[in-house]
## 1
Amino acid sequence: MSSAEPYLAQDDHAVSDAALDTIFRGARTLRQWQDKPVSSALLMAIYDLMRWGPTETNITPARFHFVVSQEAKARLEPLLDEDNRKQTMSAPATAIVAYDLNFAHTLTKLAPRSAERLSARLAKDPEKARFMATRSAGLQGGYFIVAARALGLDCGPMSGFDREGVDREFFAGTPIKSYFLCNLGYGVEGSVRPRAARLGFDEACKIL
Amino acid sequence: MSSAEPYLAQDDHAVSDAALDTIFRGARTLRQWQDKPVSSALLMAIYDLMRWGPTETNITPARFHFVVSQEAKARLEPLLDEDNRKQTMSAPATAIVAYDLNFAHTLTKLAPRSAERLSARLAKDPEKARFMATRSAGLQGGYFIVAARALGLDCGPMSGFDREGVDREFFAGTPIKSYFLCNLGYGVEGSVRPRAARLGFDEACKIL
């Protein structure tokens, strides 16, 4: 292979095989956590990395509320599906990954050239705002998980919770809506489930 | 900082600062491409990496159709917004990132323990299937962009195209729906726009 394809050639490239293991191949969803805290500085470092990932017109609609204190955990606990409670209550931090339906108010900062025109369109079309917010927040959710892993954390993303309940409890009176949850911390070695299968290239992809 | 926080301590960690630049901090959306092809092997390597990223109940609904041949490009061209045409026609490859609304048919392989129960629920609730498919395909779109960058490629993600037109042209008679496009290749140095701003931690996050 030529140097045009650094992965295959294993040279001249900043992302090592070990790094690819850390962010993709060796990473696993964790459900048991060591009793080891995650500092505010490290939570900030995750955001500081993932915020550079691309979104449509740079709208970056994702919002991250980190549940760390015992008081905040107590508010979250009853809103979790039964089988997510133990793992979440014992995690050092849980991110509520959410999106801001009123991301239009940030556009003068984020996308000054498009702000006026796009804000006017969004004001008339809440379904467009919802579609844009969820699509880009999904991408940002992916960046978030990769960034956390890259910084040495294990992740435990979860969809089993009462979304409307979380919105009432944490985002009442705001245009912010919860999307998924992600436990963060240092997993207990040997506690992961057997690796689930993935689709082969030919099952998920086509080259046209 | 203790060794619990490898990013801040800069030691004992597989993901180097240079790698973080490659996948996040230094990466930019490209719109001008070198005349340098991207091989099928490299497209397969992107999928081979990103497919390990987590999704809800391991449903992995994202589908990737890579537009590479002149024939396929000619089918895509009229469906692009005017200002995305030149950059897309000159890119060596364009991924149509899509999702399979009928991901239920893959669950016996991907999530055997949940397959029967979840398939029955999805059959009765197409809106749940759509929500699950788009949320997880969004995460997978994020993994895809990170994986392509990690393998040395530049990305040019785009939302400016006729989604229904692409679905008719490329996915007629299937439950697959387009979500966004992503040009792939080697960008022309010095061709990127000035870096757009991002929200600060306090504007997008809270620690509770």
## 2
Amino acid sequence: MKGMDVYGCIEAGGTKFVCGVGTGPDDLETASFPTLSPPATVESVAGFFKGARLKAVGIGSFGPVDLDPQSHTFGYITSTPKAGWRQFDLAGAVGRALGAPVRIDTDVNAAAVGEARWGAARGLFDFLYLTVGTGIGGGAMANGAVVHGLTHPEMGHIRIPHDLSRDPYPGGCPYHGDCLEGLASGPAIEARWGKPARELPADHPAWALEARYIGLGLANWVCTLSPRRIIIGGGVFQQAQLFPLVRAELGRILNGYVQARALLEDMESYVVPPGLGNRSGVLGALALASA
Amino acid sequence: MKGMDVYGCIEAGGTKFVCGVGTGPDDLETASFPTLSPPATVESVAGFFKGARLKAVGIGSFGPVDLDPQSHTFGYITSTPKAGWRQFDLAGAVGRALGAPVRIDTDVNAAAVGEARWGAARGLFDFLYLTVGTGIGGGAMANGAVVHGLTHPEMGHIRIPHDLSRDPYPGGCPYHGDCLEGLASGPAIEARWGKPARELPADHPAWALEARYIGLGLANWVCTLSPRRIIIGGGVFQQAQLFPLVRAELGRILNGYVQARALLEDMESYVVPPGLGNRSGVLGALALASA
């Protein structure tokens, strides 16, 4: 594979980097490395791609990332609290190390691109990809292109109703307290119930509350973006019992107002897991490279 | 004007229809009629345009409207409670009456198109137009095109935090109670304070509360759409004292998380009134016609 003309991809996470070479889901070869300092991490990346003749490299990165092509810090990680990574020129460093053109977007935007190309959003021009794990993030496509603007979206930080009498947990977001991420991310679940989400049984009250919060977020995105489908990935949604709960909450919250068959009669194909499983991000980065 | 090759436009509201002919803001001639039954209203429309050689007609309509080009009810008003208008083929009736091609979108989407063409969003590919009046609605552009999808957005119906100890008013939305529209539309202000918004003095506590709710909505849209500018029109925002209050709330709510100069240092040119005043809608319909 490495001797052929192929694409490279990097899912750049705060904990690990997943690198891959290939042309699509059927031939992708990957490896992952822990995220260390920027120079050590880029060295691991360069080692993985050594000898590959890459037409281009796609990066789906943790953020915030400067994605303004006019900016002199385009492709930089910006205000992350992660030691050493603040104002690091990730796209530039990877491009120099690999000698290939680089295309970069956020991890969730890349995942959306991957799901559009090979996954659960094939043929759709308007949809939402959401991930619920260590954080909550969303990538949207509208009119067939990823939604950007002033910066990239930060969907996890929307504010939703928080009924303190049902859920006295104040929320864990250092910026906003009880924004959606502060209430419904994996760490919020752990802080509220005293155990990691994956250790809570399927009938634990945590899941009804989680579904309520995610349902409120989805309702806001339905009202704002009118997506044709919503794909939910991430570690917390490995809990498959969440999907029916979230669909029911979304229907209850919208209460029949948005007149669309998908919402009124076919919620099972409206709110779905990723078609690419846990490879949405890395395949999305590949899709960016080969766009 | 009516003898020339010009465009026609219709701002189709639940209370009145504004019709116009022209080519842009400098030569637009308008007239308005009360919204009666569909046949009587279309007759008034036909009378206004009589003799005009229209290249095309744009309609910015109250909703919900079926905007799916694949649908056999494309251009119909759908589930409105407004007597006689439910399932009325507005685009078809206007096209037949005027013998001209029709382009239709929602009133707020049309207003967004108008602001992009001639108003406060010139040169911007990603922005939000919001109206706060009898209802609350938003039209967004992303990547230079209006955001649609499953249906059109219904931004007024997002859910936001509602602190019942500060504001015991339960909200007036028949579908959702205390969604944003239920808490912050003109009728909600009147129901809460016992007087129409326009009769409340500029130092009335109504405005701080209104700014809080609209600020929460804007924060959610900043996190979701990352607009490069937010334009707020509609009757309630004729109260100019709301703009500084809303800008301050938006800054407080985002709390520095979204690192963008516009939000951190230049909120005055980020949250602005319409460049076209109260003509965003009708000029937007004209922009649809001549797109």
